[in-house]
Amino acid sequence: MSRLAFLILVATVSSSSCPPGAGAAEPPNIVFIFSDDQCFDTVAAFGHPEVETPNLDRIAKRATTFTRAYNMGSWSGAVCVASRMMLNSGRFLWDAETVYQTAEQERQAGRWWSESMKAAGYRTYMTGKWHCRADAQKSFDVARDVRGGMPSQTPAGYNRPLIDPETGAVTDPWSPSDPKFGGFWEGGTHWSEVVANHSVDFLSEASAIDQPFFMYLAFNAPHDPRQSPAEYVAKYPVDQVKLPKNFLPEYPYAEAMAAGRRLRDEKLAPFPRTPLAVKTNRQEYYAIITHMDAMIGRILDAVKATGKQDNTWIFFTADHGLACGQHGLMGKQNLYDHSVRVPLMVIGPDAKAGQTIDHPVYLQDIMPTTLELAGIKQPEHVQFNSLLPMLGGADSPYDVVYGAYLDKQRSIRTENYKLIVYPIANKMRLYDMKQDPLEMNDLAGSASHAKTVKRLFSRLETLQAEMNDGLNLGELSRYTGS
């Protein structure tokens, strides 16, 4: 008996006792759509008043949405790397770092997402951003136009736009829709369009074969340089773009938390931040999201055209969020929700359309979810958890959310509060996430919240041990009486 036939037999026999999805008569197809740097709220269906995302809205209408999905953080300034290494290895942040350099050996040993799917009988496809040290061409049966971390940025794309303090004249040498700057236009076709083109081709091929397919479709958008055709930029006139309510000219602890003026992401806009610079960056951010959304629409149509939509699970998420002008920050190297929280939507036979789940998860939980759908027993090295029990009504396996960036930032998020710790600055910040979701009112110095700070700090130290996080938070322990 072949491995695929055996898995089908096991799934059929055990269907009465399996969680949602695991008892399918035949293995479901899986389409994973991954955006880059997309903040959790930048979907019109989630209530964003400006951005246009008709196709992500299509997904939201059919999907179960996890409203509190997070990335744990990063061991490097390239947060994308850590997020994707966690996703493909299945390991929590610091354990993923330990195998980062040996990712190709992990792949060869079968301790890799796509290799598990191959072993379960899936035909595997990949296109777009990879950013892992494992060989993408060997990780998937078919890989097309494997991209690096980001399109090439140009000097003209930084420190813009500028305002002359004497005359008020605005200078901006860069254009998001001019192909002469390269970036997403390198090669002649916008990279988001390339992802869609390959995806449609893959799906056309898959429609003609009986083998189940697993597709890893990774956009570089909306990462900078945020470029899109002129008609998309024109949808968002700068004078109509709203300034974030939590706008700051500069973040007071940026240098101590390693997100200061020397960080590449933070150089995109001038210091101090101006409303015009932030609005311009947000204009281009919304435009490239809307352009990517159009490409996602093509992918959704192609899935439907296969005739296999009813037995296809679709997952959409991002590797992390982005500040893009919030809190005086431009990048994602911080632990505010705009940078660690992501959209996460799941379409499938057992995912209720239009349902929301408001309990915490990590975006990397998608990996063991797909393994369970494929009939694979979760490997011992995989630390994240399948979402299928939660789709069936179970509680989240996580009571709190952990966050970390280098040795400069730590955080813990409960349903009601978030505590952010800056050990170099010897500073903590506490936010009431129910009353203050934009994280504007720091309560850490309030005597009435001292017990909350102490309780969360103690839980954070326990969580560090669970995460193999060896950072000593030092003087802050005495500050809380720990």
Automatic annotation (TrEMBL):
Q: Extract the Pfam families matched here.
A: Sulfatase
The entry's cellular-component GO terms read: cytoplasm
Q: Which InterPro entries match?
A: Alkaline_phosphatase_core_sf, Sulfatase_N
Q: Entry's CDD domains?
A: sulfatase_like
**Sorted alphabetically, which keywords does the UniProt record give?**
Hydrolase, Metal-binding, Signal
One function term, GO molecular function aspect: arylsulfatase activity
Give the residue range of the signal peptide.
1-24
Q: What is its EC number?
A: 3.1.6.1
Every copy of the Sulfatase N-terminal domain together lies at 28-376
Under PANTHER family, the record lists:
IDURONATE 2-SULFATASE
Protein name, entry field: Arylsulfatase
Organism placement in taxonomy: Bacteria, Pseudomonadati, Planctomycetota, Planctomycetia, Pirellulales
